[in-house]
Amino acid sequence: MIWAKDQTYSGWGRALSAKGDIAIPDTAEALRNDGPAIGNRRSYGDAPLNSGGKAIDMTKLDRIISFDRETGLLTVQAGITLGELTRVFAPQGWMPAVVPGTGFATVGGAIAMDVHGKNHHHAGSFCQHVTAITLIQDKPRKITPKTGALWLATCGGLGQTGLIAQATLQLVRTRGDMMLVTEQRASDWDEHLSLLDNSQAPYTVGWIDATATGEDLGRGIVEEGETCKGLRPTARGTKKVPFNAPHWALSSPIVKLFNAAYYRRVPKIGRTVVRTVQDFFFPLDKIHDWNKLYGKRGFHQFQCVVPLDQSEALRTIMQTIATSGLASPLAVLKRMGEGREGYLSFPMEGYTLAVDFPNRPAARALIKRLEAATLNAGGRLYLAKDALSTGAAIKSMYPEHSNWARAVAKADPEGQLQTDMTRRLDLRTPQ
Prior knowledge:
Blueprint: E1 2-10, E2 17-24, E3 37-38, E4 54-57, E5 64-67, E6 73-77, H1 82-89, E7 94-95, H2 107-113, H3 120-123, E8 130-136, E9 140-143, H4 149-154, E10 163-170, E11 172-173, E12 178-186, H5 189-198, E13 203-208, E14 220-228, E15 239-240, H6 252-264, E16 271-276, H7 277-281, E17 287-288, E18 299-307, H8 311-322, E19 331-336, E20 350-358, H9 361-376, E21 380-381, H10 391-397, H11 401-411, H12 420-424
Parallel strand pairs: 2-4, 3-4, 15-17
Antiparallel strand pairs: 1-2, 5-6, 6-10, 7-11, 8-9, 8-10, 12-14, 12-16, 13-14, 13-19, 18-20, 18-21, 19-20
């Protein structure tokens, strides 16, 4: 067991931080259920933080335990990343069924957030492809979907039912380790939704210009992808942001210019290109520490999902963002299906919008307005991204919250696994 005493650490958004001891076990036998688990801290807000307490860094527990090449069943330790699994298994014709937008997410983190990907409209959420989880409570306990409430409280449950030590995943077959990608321009909001609604591709995602207003509101680029075989392009090295960018680097005029150029990079008639799976699924992973582009104050991401019949409400949210002058170039619009596995799993059938904002008072006030609009539309916020919401709003957005709170109280009666997020939102108190 390695100890890092009195460490200051943060989530990916860097707007919130914590100070405390971090234990780094290097063997499964060293795991103890006396603090919340953390991985690569790719959650943006305070979900991976435990101010004044201990956290268990799982990243050294990253072994592949077993793999059945006939069925695709893979058992791994929780600290292995989805990017590593993609790197190892895609050339063999297998991939994790669901991956989020970064390959640095660990398997344990993907379970704790029940992450979704560019294929949610077809494949559902990550935990719907997990067949077993080993939790460390007072002693190791293996759970499956048949376990009932404990399973539902663990999937998407913020790591509050025990340390996620290992998991068995059902991988899916692929045609190769390359992606055939079709890119189309969407000229406005209605066309953007139409392209998403009518897509039959296995993977679909929309980049949206969060600065466009008027007739251009909602314009963007819709990408559709499917796995394929092909020659790998010459590998390009990763880049790194070496320092915190100045405050003007993402000022409104610069973001508008960048977004206009990015929109026009795709011809009016569209195009089809071949990319590696890493470039398609994890485009920003090539830029290490890209969160420093928002400066030392960090940033917030607002991500909501609203039901299909609330597209006009989401359009109003988009208009509010576009006219604020606060958005960054990083904004995503996706169509989601019904798939979700846990009481606090984020997905619902509808549309999800994610937009980054530099951490400024005006942005925090804007996000508060956007939260209220999401609640009024019958939608919900994604806890993997949240740093600013209120407990009352979150509990209203997640109707099964009380079921989760009761299961967590039974699994962790002494509150050893509490985090800054669960305390901020008072999540462990039933509504």
